[in-house]
Write the structure tokens for this entry.
Amino acid sequence: MTHKLPPRRLLAVAAALALIGNQAEATGQVRPKSSLDGSEQVCPLGTFHCAPRPYNYAICRPNALLDFYDPALGKDPSLRNTSPAYVKSDHVDSSNQTIFHLSGNVILQRADQKMQADTVDYNNDTTDYDARGNVRYQEASQLIAGTHIRGNSNDSRGIADNVHYQMLDERGNGVAKQGQMLDDLHTRYSMATYSTCDLGHHIWEFRGKSITMNKDTGVGTARNATMRVGKMPFIYLPYFTFPIDHRRKSGFLNPKLGNTSRSGFEISTPYYFNLAPNYDATLDPRYYASRGELLAGEFRYLTSGNQASHGQLNVEYVPNDTGESDGTTNTTGQSRYLIDYTDTTHLWDSWTFVGSYNHASDNAYLYDFGNALSHTVIYTLASNAAIVGGGTWWNAQFGGLIYQNTNPFATDAVNPYDKLPYLILNLNIPISRWLEFGANNEFDDFHKADFVEGERLDLYPYIQADLGNSAWFVRPKLAYRYTAYDLSGDYQNYGYSGLLTSGQTTPFTDKTPTRSMPIVSLDSGLVFDRSISLFGTNYTQTLEPRAYYLYVPYRNQDDLPLFDTSLTSFDYYQLFTPNQYAGDDRQMNANNLTGALTTRLLDENGVERISASFGQIRYFTPQLVQIPTGANTLTPSTNFHGSDYVAQFDMQLNDRWRVNTAYQWSPNTHQTDMAAFELQHRLGNDGVLNFSYHYRRGLLDQYSVSATYPISAYWRLIGSWSYEEPIKGLENTATGTVEALAGVEYDSCCVTLRLVDRNYVNQTYYGTVAVPTASNTNLRDNAIMFEVVFKGLGSTGGQIDPTLRRDILGYQ
């Protein structure tokens, strides 16, 4: 028989059943959602940093859902109040029109709700209900099975016995001996469990003697709770709270474990403060076995309105460092600190303030307390404050920039120049569809102790045209560059290497030197294409000859200081740039013609599968502008007729293989100046193999191999290795094995384990300063990292994943 009841009657029964659903949030964590089949986006080849992959439940049991799941049931809870309720049963007894007795395959269904039971009694006057025998309930987000449920709909009270539940969106499941709905917003459970593992196969689970859910605050409270791994208790907590929805709440975060050779074993127990919807804080007390206690704190804020801002303040404080000290600063027994502050505030219209303040108590702080397990060495801390703005044809910024040296084995001379202040104004004004006027202008006031200081103004207006279509282009550009300096009053006491000594005889002689010259360029090219077929696949092949002419007259710039300028590495893109120097202190002279040829292979979707390019610069006059590169040495001038021959080749015929190569050969020295080869291969969806070789004559000769190799559905091997060949004349650099990493990863339905050993050269010891010789120094560091991830709860660390994503291209 099928009966139609008022919607509230089904709600009376469904409300009591739904009370068990809150138990699924007892994990205390909010996880990114993942489909039950484990589908995920594989990181494309060549991606520099792959995002962390979502939890993979593909290896969970496919029959994990309770056996009464109905995939055809509706999925929209918002339709409940307006949808009719249908009841079907073998027998109905309602002789007094007050109490309804339903028996035999009872089914009550409305919208996304469906309940099944052997018998259901309902009192229409008191709204009492009683469902017995194989009670099963389904809604959009969960499944519930129990033996007996009774309660009252008017008072929003209910009691459920012997409950089994499973969440459909977030996979949580568990059991409860009894659940009580106290009212619409409060629920209490007795002898309840929760896990994200397979039903009946819980590798880990929470067991709570008493668990209370408060929907009003979004907070759950557990008393006498134990987390178990297998059959063994892992941790006991007499009282703790956790979130039951996506709202933040105060409480302890996962502890962090780590180890560094400088600070020893580390344990961290952070506590999160949910102070307000728009600001929060974290207090993070830590203990280092080799250095003592450290107290860290984080404060975040977000404001709205006309002057909306967001920012973050991080502070670390060490009251008494008990560890050894290296370098130029004695830190043993000293209090130490680190401050990291960032802020972005909208001021008015298109103007915004951006700022950051980063400062350490001494230059060895990051060396001792920095996370050497997962971060590269930081040699300087930069602090910046600026007002930035922009429009459709302009952008500008005004601010200041300062640096702090954080290399304990180097002096502050390694710091870049401070800029106090600086001003940048860029223009890009269209005159017509094919013609535009622009300018790149910058003013800087440079400061650095024991070095020449002063102001610099660099004006770079230009006018350029863009003519052509898909088959050809011509881009003439006419620019004028004017640079003026106002050096400090004692500029005569300084040379390029700083304060003059007896061995330096080239001081600056002009307080206000200037430089000006026109810069003329003409970039042009053709694009030919044809259709071809290779191995049964249709492609479009292009042939793209390109010519680039550059003219810049020579200006003697030896009397100009070097505030922020260096020689860039020569590569393919340098064939088409107007200056080989980065920074504004040098502008190269040129009377050059670049000839280049590119061919591409495009598939039917327009994806570039193969690209090959070849080119060279022909010099009609020598390049004479030079900069010092060391004691009594300058960058070599080009007194020959041509640059290196430059070639590069990239190929990715499918989504599994990718090859990139580059090569430079000098026709003057008949030597290889640069060579690079990179290979990447995707192994299924969970593995990747990388090999690379990089060589630059006199600077670098390095091999690197890294891989994530799946050996089964559960196990992956992880490793990386970098080897540096010694370079003549650069003995004070890291050679041999620069870094070696090896590990294993186990990934099950609900637990991930990672064990990694990393041995690496501490790059802080190398550079322009001598290698330290103190007895407590070690040029190599070693770290063993172990991490447990209980899916749905978080992890014990968080250090390994960033390390692997940095060292293994394509790791997820």
